[in-house]
Amino acid sequence: MLFSSPEFLEESSGMDLLENIDQFHTTCTQLLLHLEFSPNDKSALENLNQSVRQIKSLLLVERVNVLSPLIQSVEDLLEELSSNTLALTTALNDVLLLCLLLIRETVEKITFGKIEEHESQEIKDLCRHTTKIVTADEHQVTQQIENALSQLLLEHQTVPTQLLPTSATTTTLEKLPQWLTNFGIDHHDDLLLMLNLTPAVESRSPRWAGRTELITKLSLLMNQKANNPSDPNQLAMAAIAHDLGMTFIPLEILHKNQPFNDLDQCTMRDHLRLGAEPLKRLGWLEASEMVLQHHEYHDGSGYPVGLEESQICDGAKILAIADSYFACSVGNEYRQQRRRPQYRAIMEINRFSGTRFSPFWVKMFNQVTTQ
C-alpha cells in the first residue's frame, strides 16, 4: 500500500494539500538558494527547518505515507547542517532542492490520480542514498552526495529535449544544419564560417561542449515565443559567435579557479569587443550589437557600458539569459560529464529577474524551458 487510508486523495483535499505544499516549497527553495551564498545565516536555516516541518505535518495529516521517509531524510540532512556536521555544498544543495521538488511533484500526482508502484520504489531507493549521506564518515560523504544526486538526476533531466545538441560532426559544413533551417534561418556563408569555427572555440574549455547549439536554440525559441521581435538571422549569428572573443583569452585566466584580479577582469571583459568587432566588419551590425551588450544588466549594473534596460537591444537580453542558463547548468564543482539539474538552472535565472535579466524575457524563458 502506498498510503494507509485513503489509498489516494480526494480531489478537494488534494488540491488544498498541493496549494499548501506549493507555498512551503517556494519558501524552501528561496531559502536554500540564499543559504548557498550565505551559509552562516542561522536564522535562514531555522526558517528552512520550520518550513520542512510544516511540509511534514501536512503530509502526516493527509497520511501520504509514501513520502514520510523522504521528508524525514530532508530533515536529517538539515539537522546535520544545523550542527555543522555537514557543509552546504552546491551538490548537497541540489540534492535538497530536488528532494523537495520530488515531494511537490508526488503530491501533484496523488492529487490528480495515483503514483505507480515503481515510483514508490524509486523514492525508497533515493531515501537509502540520502540516509548514507548522514551516516557516512568525512571521507565518504562527498561520494554519497554524488550518488544521491545521480539517483535524483535519473528522474530530472538536465536539459530540455528540444535544446539537446545534435550529433557532433568534425567535417566542414557546406550548408546550414537542419536544426537551424527549422527556425527559418537563411543560408549565408558568414554563418557557415562561424559554425565551422565552433569546434575550435568549444575545445578551449572542457565544459563548453555543445554550448553553441544549446544557446542558439534557446535564443531562437525565446525569440519565437515572443513573435520574433529580434531578427532571427541576426540573433542566430550573435548566438553562434557570441563568445568567439573568449578564444583569445589566455587559458590561465579562462580556467582560473581563484577570484579574478582587476587585470583578469579587464581581460575577460574584453572578449565582448573581440567577438563583436569581426561581426561588425562582416556587416552583421545588429548581431554585433547583441554580442557587445549581452553582459549588460536590466538594472544597469552590467558591462561594458552599464546600459539600463531600455538601452539594451532585445537580442542581447535574450542572449544574456541563454548564456547564463548554460553556465548555470554546468557547475564548476561538477565533473565534465555532470550537468546540473535543469530545475536548478531555471531557478537561478528567475532569481535574477528584474536585476540582471528582463522580467519579460525571463517569462519567455520559463515558457520555453518548462513546456
Automatic annotation (TrEMBL):
CDD domains recorded for this chain?
HDc (cd00077)
Q: Where is the HD-GYP domain?
A: 183-371
What's a Pfam family this protein contains? HD_5
Name it: HD-GYP domain-containing protein
The record lists the lineage as:
Bacteria, Pseudomonadati, Pseudomonadota, Gammaproteobacteria, Cellvibrionales
